Amino acid sequence: MTKPLSFGLDFGTTNSSLAVYDGQTLHRPHLDRAGDNPTVLPSLLYIDRQQQALVGTAAAQQYLQHETGR
After folding, report:
1. I want to staple 54 with a disulfide (CB 3.0 to 4.6 A). Which of 8, 43, 59, 64 is the partner?
2. pLDDT band per the 50, 70, 90 thresholds, residue 49
3. What is the mean pLDDT of residues 29-54?
4. Is 8 exposed, middle or buried (0-12, 13-18, 19+ CB in 10 A)?
């Protein structure tokens, strides 16, 4: 019999994080490999004019590169 997984999600106004518990171990998956702490995702969403969506640090970088001064 497989054990059920338990998930905890904190969708914050500044940062978001996720934890997964498999019945024995708590895991914190990497959500933002471009960030200083890959287990924390800045709560940012950027959609460009071609309808491509980015989240987290990549969203902030893309916004600053393309939208500054608009």
Report:
1. 59
2. confident
3. 94
4. exposed
Does the predicted TM-score (pTM) go above 0.85?
Answer: no
Query: Tokens 């970088």 appear where?
Result: 61
* Cβ atoms < 10 Å from Cβ of 22: 12
Residue type, 16: S
Place of tokens 């019999």: 1
> Residue 34 pLDDT more than 70?
yes
Q: What is the CA radius of gyration of the chain?
A: 15
Tokens at 41, concatenated: 């995702």
Q: What is the three-state SS of the chain?
A: CCCCCEEEEEECCCEEEEEEECCCCEECCCCCCCCCCCCEEECCEEECCCCCEEEHHHHHHHHHHHCCCC
